[in-house]
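Q: Here's a chain of 249 amino acids. Please give me its 3D structure as tokens.
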Amino acid sequence: RNLTDISLLECFIHLRYVDLSENKLQDLSPLSSLTHLLWLKVDGNLLTSAYMQELPYLQIISFVQNRIKDMEGITHPRLASLSLKGNKIQTALGLSHGQLFSLQILELRGNKLESTAGLSLPKLKNLYLAQNAIRSLEGLEGLGQLTTLHLRDNQLGTLDGFCSSLKCLQYLNLRNNGISNLQEVAKLQVLPMLQALVLLDNPCCDEPSYRLEVLVLLPRLQRLDKEPFEQDEQAGANQIRQRRQEEQK
């Protein structure tokens, strides 16, 4: 509706679900009086900041396709799902870790992030970072409950930064990065629960016996590039692994 002013909403203090998508909003301050708000969608506006006064019951926010440049001022204590897909965010360092202790889903696809620093969120389960410019993985040790991590279409050349405190991570998507050496995959051995890995469109996928070599390095892996491992693949990988271990003795 091309709305630029939502001050009228200040009167409706019991609103719980608000969708203001596809307008021309630059200011959300009138929503600060909506203290019963549970769900807010403001996709496709002209917002340059995600800052809002803290709302005690707000659980879901979607800021998709705005012009937001940082993650300052997001402090809602019950927020469980936050989408900032398709903005202009360059760093996550402004996140309020101490106040976002309920956040489980964070969607940051299609931004301008160069690092994962600042994403230390204790309850986070699903983290979507595809289509950024990430070159380094930092600060992942605070993601102890993370189960799904999407890093497709970034600029990772190494897999430094993964650590054993990612003890719940089961699914990792690294499609279309710059990983050229299969030995980088050995750095994923610190992930005790990793079951599914996507490495398609990385240079290392062209190495001979690619699937087998990944399974040799990661014996607990169940699926690679969406394809489950067959029993004969697992048996072959076990033989290679045992032979190499004996050669090293």
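Q: Can you summarize the key feature?
A: The chain has a mean pLDDT of 95.
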